[in-house]
Amino acid sequence: MRELSRREFVEAAAGTAFVLGVSVGVSGCARSVAGVARPPFAFRKRSNIRKFAVALPGLGPKAANEIGQYIPLATKLPGKFAGKPVDQYDLGVAEYSGNVSHDLAGPTRFLGYYDKATNDKRYLGGVIVAKRGTPVMLNVTNELPDRALIPIDPTIMAGGGKMVGDLPLNRHATHLHGGATPWFSDGTPYQWFDPKGLTGESFMNVPGTKPAAGTASYYYPMDQSARLLWYHDHAMGLTRTNAYSGIASALVLIDDFELSLVNKGLLPDLVGIPLIIQDKAFVPANIAELDPGWKWGAPGSLWYPHEYVPNTSEAGQANPKGKYEWGKTADKPAANTKPLPAVSAVPEAFFDTILINGAPHPYVTVAPRRVRFRMLNGSQARFYHMNIYAEDTANPGEAKVGASGPTMYQVGTEGGFLPGVAIHKNDTPLPVETDGSANVDGPFSLLLAPAERADVVIDFNGVSPGTTFILYSDSPAPFPGGDARNDYFFGDKDLEGEGGAPATKPGYEPDSRSLLKFVVGKGSGDKMDTPTWLKQMDVQLKTNFLTGNQPGLLFHAGDPSVGAFPYAGPVARKLTLNEDFDEYGRLIQRLGTTTSQSTNNQGMPTWALAYDDPVTESPRAGTTETWEILNLTADVHPIHFHLVNVQLIQRQKFEGDPSGYALKDAPMPPEANERGWKDTVRCNPGEVTTVIMKFDLPSLPTAEMRKAVSPRTGGAEYVWHCHILEHEEHDMMRPFVVT
Fold first, then answer.
1. Domain final residue, candidates 268, 286, 315
2. Which of 237, 251, 328, 583, CA to CA, is 20 to 30 A from 126?
3. CA-to-CA distance for 648 and 631, rounded, in angstroms?
4. What is the pLDDT of residues 222-254, one digit of tens each?
């Protein structure tokens, strides 16, 4: 079968006769050819950044690495609100400079949070450790400059009929990702504020507080079970660039159950070692040669794409060095296409340097025992499919792929602890189709889409001191189709002639596969053997659900460790994931419903809605709903839900028109590490993803807080969206309003 392009897949998916869900070779944004003489800079860079040259930065100054990198903790201040004790934090969000690597041409400018009590401005700063049952009061002061740190597209929608270019560039909204927060503290896209007091249509401080102009107040009840949350910018039209620039940090929520696991010796420690995984690019010394249009930062600065490179020129000339499909020259051209803007958004962004906790390709020294890691995929669009392999002694710094390392035991996700341990034996490479794309139905090892988290215990018991392993990812980018020009590793081909990078030098990045090096140090092993530990952990995790400390699953077979499958009950909402061209002919992703059919600018049927279209999801508070989400695109989309955690029930292929589709083949149950609660769920191409959720609003201490409604929508306003940040911003996000 001839490989279908991404656009052909999407166009076929819009037709009523096409059978969705068949195994076809679909490609991602960056795989088609383009029509420009000069290839995009990001695919040409040579790098002098050494791999595994610095230690993993940890939490606090005592965990600094060789070049002084560490992640600061936020200062907890005792306080009271509504007559009850709260933990108060005062943060600023500002521009600052940081040293990422001595191998870079200069320091890197970032935007980010910092603790105002210490004025410690460092990457990922302001980590909060909260205790269940004690609310957090957060004050954030906007000190951002009104200028672009990296390229910002002025044509992206900023809401209310305005574009980004119509509003200040230093708008900000803090969103606690994964938090069951009141709507006025959720940090949704219209809740932005700038340093001078200008605010978005949905902005509201915590009722009963009156912070100064340029400061916003947030109230987090903290009545959820233990988990890793994170907070990041969510301002309309700026989320992708603000998050990439560094406006993100973590909140670790602990509870008595988690403390009991530590006290019983079942969890190695309370907080664990964070692994915040991101991909970035940095401006090289010869930027003027590689990217003559670059004007946003000196060598060492963050680099971000600023050109939309069409797949063919207007004259119809193709160039194998290019990247993106363009509506103006599509097989069915988009009508009335405007000229491309000089600074343009791109469909997805992939980069050549992996940062973990802000350090490029670091190493971490571990004791020969069970060690806890809390992983977060904080990338814009890159997925990570991870195994641990032995280091290749013949090629130091590289993984010996297939030589399985210590087993990973996953005990939690972004929704808290799982109902049973999910075991990753490091013997499952990425499953692929005959065309080389990923098989989206697995089986997988540890796969994390953007925004997904994993609470993992790695068993180093019995490993000799000095032994080394590599945390290795073989995931394609985009996922699942991939593009070799986004995949960097020792042994790759020189793709300069095709718009890609030179071959990777041994021991250096670019490398998107070798993420982290484990070095086993000296020390004693665990007193409890791992089989006994595993049995006891499974009992404890199951009990956590059955006692209600972790909310019981909404649909399952009685035993929460079994999971929920299959489903034949009622469906409250049927939603769609769509791809079209925008008015500039650029690829644009959108959400919709199966009843919102219209005609796009190619004259083809679409089920897409814009963010500002009327609200279509208005659940009643306290109700439980099941949603079916139909993916009409060629990408896997990590769909994130604000306010609620969801339970993934099943995935199933479908065929036919979305307004009258039919399910086909057998439904597929969740993976073992998807059987608990989730706030981000992967939705596969050609499949219906079924999730169930309960729309409980958080308990609030004052009548004024409980009565507050959004001035924009008249209810408790939240959103659901794709967490590929370039998708979310353009325009794969929709509001839902709880009434």
1. 268
2. 237
3. 15
4. 999 999 999 999 999 999 999 999 999 999 999
